[in-house]
Amino acid sequence: MAVVLLAAGLVLSCSQSDEKLPILSRREAVTKVVDGKSVTDSVYQTIPDFAFVSQYGDTVTAKAIANKIYVADFFFTSCPTICPKMKVQLKRVYETFKGNPDVMLLSHTIDPAHDSVAVLREFADNLGVSGRQWLFVTGDRETIYDIGQNSYMVTAQQDSSAPGGVVHSGAFILVDKQRHIRGIYDGTTQEGVDKLMNDINRLLAEYKS
Amino acid sequence: MTIRLGLYATLAGLLTLASCQSDEEIKRQKYITEGILLYKSNCANCHQADGKGVAALYPPLAGSDYLANKDKVICLIKYGLNGPIVVNGKRYNRPMPAQLQLSDLEVAEITTYIYNEWGKETGLTSVTAVTPILKACETNAQQNPAPASAP
């Protein structure tokens, strides 16, 4: 039995590591002039540059994630519904990849009116997170919703009728070093996040080969 | 003959007693079954299915000395809580949202589950016990409402 399982595990791990993670970013048309001719090509959208403020009060731009793969999510500290689940799960990711200089976590608050720098700092402290590997960022509400909906492709819309006042997707988004989206996971479940961690390892392996 | 009658009487008495206890036991199990489901949908997000809470964010129920304040616990299940509390010597300061949609019976079922699972109780906390406690703290809660969790 154990042998069969082991064999199955080997087959699985082989087939998985052979295959690269797909690029899920949307394609967009780009028109360039090549040799005097106008050529339209399609390229993958990338996560655009941004400027938010972290739990330590400093400005975080795309420089912070340069040459790193990272997991992005959207939450707010006073959310009683799915956020606690998401944070428990993301904490597992944090513990697993703690100290790995190639991996970062970026949690955006969708309630910047309440989630000030001090509130985010206390939340991170209370969650047992220190250092800069997991940044909790706040900023202009519209900008956060915009990057969430248009760049990370998650639903971050306000809906005052839902418990907690905001409906959001509970998704974790895996972004590679070229700022392409490589996976979207259910951040509220153990299985979803197990898959995320497996895919982080696969993505890390792509950069080693 | 009288001995036999006496024996029957005793047996009948025992049977009644047994069925009484099992009625009580069936009720307790109903409370707990409902309580588990209600706990999962209303409490476990923060306090976790195993009742251990999350780091310094959300306090544990398992092994929690706060359970000694049973009336307070019953009130905060429905009306939430604001401001710092100390659980097992650790300070927690995160608002707990009110769950005003919970009926008295549902609060009783959650309380029964929590105290059977983590409070070393073996009986049920009946709805008749819970109603006056909730009544008493309702007035309090209206004067001092827990914050809305919505932004």
Please identify which CATH superfamily of chain B we are dealing with.
Answer: Cytochrome c-like domain
Q: Per DSSP, what share of the residues of chain A sits in E-state strands of 2 or more residues? A: 25-35%
Which second-level CATH architecture of chain A applies? 3-Layer(aba) Sandwich
Helix content of chain B: 55-70%
Uncertain parts of chain A = 3-15
Strand order of the largest sheet of chain A: 7-6-5-10-11
| Major protein interface | A-B, 26 and 16 residues
Specify the biggest β-sheet of chain A: 5 strands, mixed
Q: Spell out the helices and strands of chain B N to C.
A: HHHEEHH
Oligomer: heterodimer
What is the molecular shape of chain A?
A: globular
Q: Which CATH class of chain B applies here? A: Mainly Alpha
Question: What is the CATH level 1 assignment of chain A?
Answer: Alpha Beta
Rg of chain B to the nearest angstrom? 20 Å
Structural class of chain B: mainly alpha
Query: How many strand elements of chain B?
Result: 2
GO molecular function, one term (chain B): electron transfer activity
Organism (chain B): Spirosoma sordidisoli
InterPro entries (chain B): Cyt_c-like_dom (IPR009056), Cyt_c-like_dom_sf (IPR036909), Cytochrome_c-type_DH (IPR051459)
Keywords (chain B): Heme, Iron, Metal-binding
Q: Can you put this structure into words, describing what you see?
A:
The complex is a heterodimer of chains A (209) and B (151). Chain A has 209 residues and is an alpha+beta fold. Chain A has one domain: Glutaredoxin, CATH 3.40.30. Chain A contains five helices and eleven strands. In chain A, the strands form four sheets. A five-stranded mixed β-sheet of chain A has the order 7-6-5-10-11. A two-stranded antiparallel sheet of chain A has the order 1-2. In chain A, helix 2 (83-97) runs parallel beside helix 5 (190-208). The two termini of chain A are 33 Å apart. Chain B is mainly α. Chain B has a single domain, classed as Orthogonal Bundle (Cytochrome Bc1 Complex, Chain D, domain 2), CATH 1.10.760. Chain B is elongated, with a radius of gyration of 20 Å. Chain B is built from five helices and two strands; from the N terminus they run H-H-H-E-E-H-H. Chain B is 57% helix and 4% strand. Chain B has helices spanning 2-42, 44-47, 70-79, 104-117, 127-143; strands spanning 85-87, 90-92. The N and C termini of chain B lie far apart (79 Å). At the A-B interface, helix 2 and helix 3 of A face loops of B.
